[in-house]
Design a protein that fits this description.
CATH superfamily of the largest domain: FAD/NAD(P)-binding domain
Largest sheet: 7 strands, mixed
Structural class: alpha/beta
Number of domains: 3
Helix content: 40-55%
Radius of gyration: 26 Å
Strand content: 15-25%
Distance between the termini: 68 Å
CATH architecture of the largest domain: 3-Layer(bba) Sandwich
Bound molecules: flavin-adenine dinucleotide
Strand order of the largest sheet: 6-5-14-15-16-13-17
Number of helices: 16
Shape: globular
CATH topology of the largest domain: FAD/NAD(P)-binding domain
Length: about 475
Amino acid sequence: MEPAEIKSEKKKVVAVVGGGLVGALNACFFAKRGFDVQVYESREDIRTAKVVKGRSINLALSHRGRSALKHVGLEEKIVSQGIPMHARMIHSLNGKQSPIPYGKKGQFILSVDRANLNKQLLTEAETYPNTKLNFDHKLQDWNAETGAMTFVRADGTKQQILADLIVGCDGAFSSIRKQFLRRSRFNYSQTYIPHGYMELTMPPRDGDFAMKPNYLHIWPRNTFMMIALPNLDKTFTCTLFMPFENFEEITTGDEVLEFFQKYFPDAIPLIGVEALKCDYFRLPAQAMVSVKCSPYHIADKCVLMGDAAHAVVPFYGQGMNAGFEDCIVFDEIMDQFNDDLSEVLPEYTRVRVPDDHAIADLAMYNYIEMRAHVNSKWFLFRKYVDNFLHFLMPRTIVPLYTMVTFTRTRYHQAVERWQWQNKVINRGLFFCGTGAVLGGSYLLFKNPPNVDKIHIDVEKMWNRLLSTGTS
Ligand code: FAD
């Protein structure tokens, strides 16, 4: 493989702690700038490992993530290995399926394989001669003043390493962040939501996808929901999100079946009765945490990115996308301050914190929208109105989902704009509604109707309703 282009020769050592999605991509960004990049990952190399443990099997990649991949020349390759999802497909209890498009025609999000994406990013990072990947290196401790880090290997041996800049990409339970917590004026909050998640596989049917593949399938059931994303091997990964107490109430295979018969009957033949009864107990439900903190840096020595800085609940499909965007934002600020880390790190905190906090809040909001609001007629009507107004005035009214998923509008600005749009649209609908009522009343007053006729019509209508059994 051809080594990727290097911008300039610099000697500063950047230690990227964590070789997950964001760490591996970040290594490419720093290598491109000419730093001496060392990646330290606690796991063994997933490209050669027999078993890859981790979180969700697949995830939704959208514009922000794609922009970052483009920066390191990987966009086309990753996109070609993903499955476009143009709309949500809502599964009602009675088995009816109704699509709700994500955006305009031609706009889609992509279902990508997490492990494959991570492998490709690691391989890309290795194409830079100034990057070294160190697996089986678990960060145990580090010193913010000196930049000295202590890593433990699987055999128990320890290794001391020095770096000019430490980039903490070690995920939601970051060891790097622990040092931040010991310092004054570091704000930190973490929230576990009451729901857990469990993954189930829907196998192919007669060699093809068991459901329409170009959709993100959703079974919204108010207090819980199931979603399914397609995989290249024609399976679907179904994820059941439910309060832990509900997971724990189900203790036998028959109870699993009973639960699915009640809430997801159309999914039973597609997953398979025996698989369902067995897979439910394969792994316990996993917890989901939302982490907010600030600042993201210590002096010119250390910076947090990805889930280490902002773990978000997965309901906006933005955790990885936001983490990938962190890499671009940091890179843009490096350009702005000519790689001067003492200026870059505080500026990165200043710019990025409000955006990451905004997407953390939005993801929490979507946690309710996905499982409950999509069942509401008002919600569907408002989605329709928003899309229609966006069609008429594409620059003035942009649906929130579009801003978050298909643009790089700063997250906090997207929220502000959404709040403004909501005010304007709701007022408009109120005035239209009031106008229609007043106008109708005026017309009725001016031209009083023939009451006998109305009586007959109402009677007719009532009879028709009774005969069809509708109420
Ligand atoms: P991680 O992926 O957690 O990687 C951290 C790495 O650091 C790991 O490799 C770990 O082994 C390593 N590490 C940890 N501790 C140490 C240590 N002490 N020393 C050395 N290495 C260490 N996001 C989306 O954009 N779209 C989605 O559709 C989506 N779906 C999701 C579904 C679920 C169920 C979940 C849970 C998350 C989802 N996400 C999604 C979020 C996404 O998974 C995360 O935002 C993303 O993985 C963050 O990447 P990261 O590299 O920051 O952290």
